[in-house]
Amino acid sequence: MALQTSAEAPVPVRTVLQLVGGWISRLGRIWVDGEIAECARRGGTVFLTLRDPAAAVSVRVVCTRAVFEATNPPPGEGARVAVYAKPDFNATRGSFALTALEIRPVGIGELLARLELLRQKLAAEGLFSPERKRRLPFLPQVIGLICGRDSAAQRDVQRIAAQRWPAVRFRVEQTAVQGSYATGEVIQALQRLDGAPGIDVIIIARGGGSLEDLLPFSDESLIRAVVACRTPVVSAIGHEQDTPLLDYVADLRAATPTDAAKRVVPDVTEQLALIAGLRDRARRCVNGRIERETSWLAAMTSRPAIANPVREVERHQEQVTALTQRARRCLGSALNRAGDDLSHTRARLLALSPASTLRRGYAIVQHADDGVVRSATEVSAGEPLTIRFAKDQLSVAAVPPPGEPAAGTAPRKAAPRKAAPRKTAPGKTAPGKQPGQAEGPAADPQGPRG
After folding, report:
1. Is 48 within the bounds of a domain?
2. How do 252-253 and 233-237 pair as beta strands?
3. What is the pTM of this model?
4. Rounded (5°) CA angle 10-16-22
5. Please, what's the b/e burial string for 67-86 (b: 16 or more CB within 10 A of its CB; e: otherwise)?
6. What DSSP character marks residue 216?
7. Which residues pair with 40 in a beta bridge?
8. Which of 230, 58, 217 is nearest to 146 (CA)?
9. I need a surface site. Which of 17, 151, 233, 405 has the fewest CB within 10 A?
10. Which domain holds residue 69?
11. How far apart are CA 271 and CA 373, in angstroms?
12. Cα–Cα dist 236/206, whole Å
């Protein structure tokens, strides 16, 4: 509960100090991690100054000599310790101090365990994800360099970079690279370089050292400051086997400061050789393509159809002419064969026709109803008959042969009328007729019908 005071009703100093002492005593006993900055022994009491490794903050620690020497060997200045203490406020002098009940040195194993827990925490947040890492510029014009004061890392980076690309420039920020002030100074330098215009990439470089010396580069605040940067950051801390947490979050991890200069600045000699090689390769590809196309063009132009197109037309014309002549010959032969077949058929038709037989002197005897007389038994005495010749016809009457009844007697039974026609030899009359005894009308000048 807040203390109610005013200018008219102030509280004495002892009351304030007693209240402060009461509030502090409520903290109880706690473990405090820090680095011993000062150590003084006075009689049976040891006075320590415990400093925060990542900030310019310190606190006074008081313990007995027995508690201090319980750690074998007793810690000295610069040692990292964990103190189990009771906060104590001296109301008489208004001073604050920690009364140490136990002191434990923080070993390498414990530091590594703490760093592993921090690494897992940051990795779970995605700060080490490869997707968030930025690509370095191919040819940086200005490089921001964070390094120790007059350090070998600075000289190595600048010397290698000048050898590889003499035109490259640096903006150097010299800071503490170990101790309690290192983390804060590196963060401030990083923010200045990230906000400066024209900085293409930032290199944080430091030489090798122990795990305790490299602890500032595993500080959580520095890791988050690198994540917040807009400029790509290269980590070149220690040697190849050293892996502070800064290596996981940086856009590029270099094994050493010299390696950082090689990976950030391209070698002009290598680039010129690469350009020359690519130029030669391109020239070979273009020349090969031109040679292939030239060979193809020469092969195409050497073909007869392109070398002498008129000759190709003439050749096709000769083929058309030959095919035309062949077609004419084939058609003429077919027509001739068809004409011969037609002539032969006509000759056979004429040879087999009745008119041709009649022209050889034969005649056809017909009844009055145009039925053909094929036998004498088919003719009755006195029956009118018609005799057809090749060109005309003759009408006669049938007379009985000698020894048969004369006209007016009962006729003989006629045979069927579809017998073969009776033929007479040339120059002979029909049976039963004497020469000169033909009767009937004159012969038909139109010839036989049918």
Report:
1. yes
2. parallel
3. 0.49
4. 150
5. bbeeeeeebeeebbbebebe
6. G
7. 47
8. 217
9. 405
10. 13-106
11. 129
12. 6
**Bridge-based pairing state of the strands 45-51 and 30-42:** antiparallel
- Report residue 36 as tokens: 């011993």
- CA 339, 345, 351, 355 dihedral sign is negative
Does residue 243 belong to any structural domain of this protein?
A: yes
* Owner of token pair 């027509």: 335
**CA 368/CA 117 separation, integer angstroms:** 146
**C-alpha–C-alpha distance, residues 239 and 234, integer Å:** 14
Domain count, the chain: 4
d(CA 283, CA 278): 8
- Which whole-number Å values give the CA distances from 241 to 95, 187, 203, 208, 237, in the listed order? 45, 24, 19, 10, 10
User: Residue 45: CB partners within 8 Å, gap ≥ 6?
Assistant: 62, 63, 64, 65
Write the pLDDT tens digit of every residue in 369-396: 878 888 888 888 888 989 888 888 888 8
Which ranges in 4-107 belong to alpha helices (H)?
13-25, 65-69
Q: Is residue 387 part of a domain?
A: yes
Burial 293-316 (b: 16+ CB within 10 A, else e): eeeeeeeeeeeeeeeeeeeeeeee
CB-CB neighbours of 146 under 10 Å: 27
Quick: pLDDT tens for 4-56.
788 888 888 888 888 888 888 888 889 998 888 889 988 889 999 998 877 77
CATH number of the domain that residue 22 is part of: 2.40.50.140
| Nearest in space to 104 (alpha carbons), one of 135, 81, 123, 122 | 81
Q: Are strands 169-174 and 142-147 parallel, antiparallel or unpaired?
A: parallel
Q: What is the mean pLDDT of the chain?
A: 82
Smallest CA-to-CA distance from 222 within 287, 176, 160 is with 176
Does 91 share its domain with 29? yes
Same domain flag for 148 and 226: yes
Cα three-residue angle 392-397-402, rounded to 5 degrees: 125
